[in-house]
Design brief:
- The structure is a single chain.
- The chain has five helices and eight strands.
- The chain is α+β, with helices and mostly antiparallel strands.
- The protein has two domains: about 110 residues, no CATH class; about 80 residues, C-type lysozyme inhibitor (Lipocalin), CATH 2.40.128.
- The chain has an eight-stranded antiparallel barrel with strand order 1-2-3-4-5-6-7-8.
Length: about 210
């Protein structure tokens, strides 16, 4: 059974490599070249300033991750993972909410790369991402990991236990507010200086504090 599983994984990896025209031993894929964009998702990204910001930032994070021999997973696995990610991102073209799907894809991948590498988390003055930061919310047992995209508008990726949600920045009279929803209902995350409030479906707003990571 293990042999069959291993063979299936290899065949799947090969098909993904073929789909994106690159394999694990190839050079790091650059960001999208809009002059050469052919896939419908790439065309969507090229005509949307927010998505282009996310693509440029993710390319920066990915290239940094490949320089980190202590990253988790290691660089050779990151290359393979990136091919799977590109193929999955391009599948957003088949869904009803293409832009929302692409935003979620970029936010999750940025979270993974930043979480796995200290070099990726380097304080670059040109960075558009921050985190992951860990939040402890009153009355909520799990720590919430948050990775922020300071695009226009901004995005935050929240993950706890077996749940993850991507929220989009919305106008706010004070502080920064993000909202979004999934099949369970509506979520909100608001911060103003040291004050942070989080609300998930079926609960009241919870006061949260940042905890050290690691």
């Amino acid at each position: 059974m293990k042999t069959v599983t291993a063979l299936f994984t290899c065949l799947l990896a090969a098909s993904v490599c073929a789909a994106v025209s690159t394999c694990a031993n190839a050079a790091p894929p650059p960001g999208i070249d809009c002059a050469q964009a052919k896939a419908s998702v790439e065309k969507l990204i090229c005509r949307d300033p927010q998505l282009m910001q996310m693509d440029n930032e993710l390319t920066r994070l990915y290239r940094l991750a490949l320089t980190d021999q202590r990253s988790v997973p290691p660089p050779d696995s990151i290359i393979i993972d990136q091919q799977f990610w590109i193929a999955a991102r391009n599948e957003c073209a088949s869904g009803p909410e293409q832009k929302g799907c692409v935003i979620r894809s970029y936010a999750e991948r940025a979270h993974q790369l930043r979480q796995g590498s200290a070099i990726v988390r380097t304080k670059d003055p040109d960075r558009l991402t921050e985190g992951p930061l860990a939040y402890r919310c009153a009355g909520f047992n799990a720590l919430i990991a948050a990775t922020f995209f300071s695009t226009q508008p901004g995005v935050v990726y929240l993950k706890w236990a077996n749940t993850a949600i991507t929220l989009n920045q919305v106008p706010s009279e004070s502080g920064t507010r993000y909202t979004g929803k999934d099949y369970q209902g509506n979520y909100s995350f608001w911060q103003d200086g040291g004050v942070v409030l989080f609300q998930k479906p079926g609960s009241r707003e919870m006061s949260c504090t940042v905890e050290p990571v690691g």
